[in-house]
Amino acid sequence: MFNKKTIEDLDVSKKKVLVRVDYNVPLDDELSITDDTRIRLSMPTIDYLIKKDAKVIIMSHLGRPKGKIEPKLSLDPVAKRLEKLIGKKIKKFGQIYSREIKEYINNEMDFGEVVMLENLRFDPGEKENNDELAKSIASLADIYVDDAFGAAHRAHASVVGVARYLPSVAGFLMKKEIEVLTSLLESPERPFMAILGGSKVSGKIPVIRNLLGKVNSLILGGGMTYTFLKVQGYEVGKSICEDGQLDFAKEMLELAKKDNVNLVLPVDIIAAKDFDNDAERKMVSIQSIPVDWMGLDIGQKSIELFSKEISKARTIFWNGPLGVFEWDNFSNGTKSIANAVAESQAVTVAGGGDTITALNKYKLYSKISHVSSGGGAAMEFLEGKELPGVVSLLDR
User: Fold this and answer.
1) Contact, 172 vs 145, CB < 8 A?
2) Which pLDDT does position 202 carry in this prediction?
3) pLDDT value for 373
């Protein structure tokens, strides 16, 4: 199923191994990590390399510093959290590459030890896929391991550039992600259902189009709902609505009918007078949305309808919340659907930053069969696109 070489296909013992991970973790105002899921997901690969007595060189991005050094986005807190997880000291460098770093790795670093480079995006050459930067980073190691599925859709220097200069293979997380998502598209147990939420239709056009040819049913929720409702003639008030996507919504409704896909939309919503957690709110049917109100969550009848459909599925892919779940007064829809997915008998796959946040918030993460570490990468894969970070790895 996975046609690329992995970390187990090369002899990494006593080698210098450069590992691209995705440690783009959320930080609070005190620069403390609020969710270390992505760090924990990299542990099988790092533990394997330590046990094989490799010199492990970790690199990652964090946030969007736009090619400039931003001390608040340093990987220092990430290095400290990783130290606790692996139980040994990590030398964290304040640069991405330097002659001193290279000399340390070659002459002072012990086998079985771990070092970490600074935030890759402090250098504009990272996003530009600058060849000199890629060549410099590659010169630190003998082997490159890509375990950053979350960055696999980015043609950056640390993702594809480095692969031009080193034998390049997948880590355990990368392999698992591709295998799970491939099976989702090629051999799902049926009925196969997708649940797509989030605010905008425009961000999900390609994946909706691709999934309609593969799923048995498709539930749509969140802000994107209102574009589909409006094209059917409903009043949507001040709800999010992309008028530029009305033709697409109409086309998808027609395509779903033609392909016998059960496309399920909300039948009622929680409407609010203003975009505020404490705004006046009420549950209304989709036929009765007030002209000066906005929909911020799905209603109880929609929860019951969606949950009934979910109970029939044997494979479920979920991406995107069903409402403004960050606010308690508009979180019931997302919470209820998350519980329905977690309690179903289906193979369940979830992806996307907000989806992961919701699963953690409701303590349901461990009840999902597979939670994808890369929202953007997973969506592009499900669109049918090739991911640059996967293409650049050695073929089997």
Assistant:
1) no
2) 85
3) 87
Helices (H), ranges, 187-319? 205-211, 225-231, 246-258, 300-312
Is the CB of residue 268 less than 8 Å from the CB of residue 298? yes
User: Does 102 participate in catalysis according to the annotation?
Assistant: no
Active-site residue, from 63, 203, 376, 384: 376
Encoded amino acid at 291, one letter: V
H or E stretch covering 169 = strand 168-170
In angstroms, the CA 207 to CA 221 distance is: 15
Residues 6+ apart with CB under 8 A from 339: 362, 364
Handedness of CA 216, 221, 226, 229 (dihedral sign): positive
**pLDDT confidence of residue 204:** 86
Beta-carbon contacts of residue 194 (< 8 Å; ≥ 6 apart): 211, 215, 217, 218, 219, 316, 317, 318, 319
Alpha helices in 120-260, H assignment, sequence order: 124-127, 131-138, 172-186, 205-211, 225-231, 246-258
Whether 125 is catalytic: no
Taking the C-alpha atoms of residue 396 and residue 390, their distance in angstroms, rounded to an integer, is 12
At residue 356, the pLDDT reads 87
Catalytically annotated residue among 63, 112, 203, 353: 353
CA 165/CA 15 separation, integer angstroms: 15
**Which regions of the chain are under pLDDT 70?**
1
The active-site residue, picked from 4, 15, 20, 38, is 38
Active site residue 376: yes
Helices 332-343/300-312 angle, 10° precision: 20
Q: Three-state SS for 201?
A: coil
The pLDDT value recorded for residue 376 is 86
Please spell the DSSP secondary structure of 370-387, one letter per residue. Answer: EE-S-HHHHHHHHTTPPP
Domains within the chain, CATH numbers bracketed: 7-172 (3.40.50.1260), 180-382 (3.40.50.1260)
Distances (CA, A) of 292 to 234, 236, 274: 14, 9, 9
Catalytic annotation on 38? Answer: yes
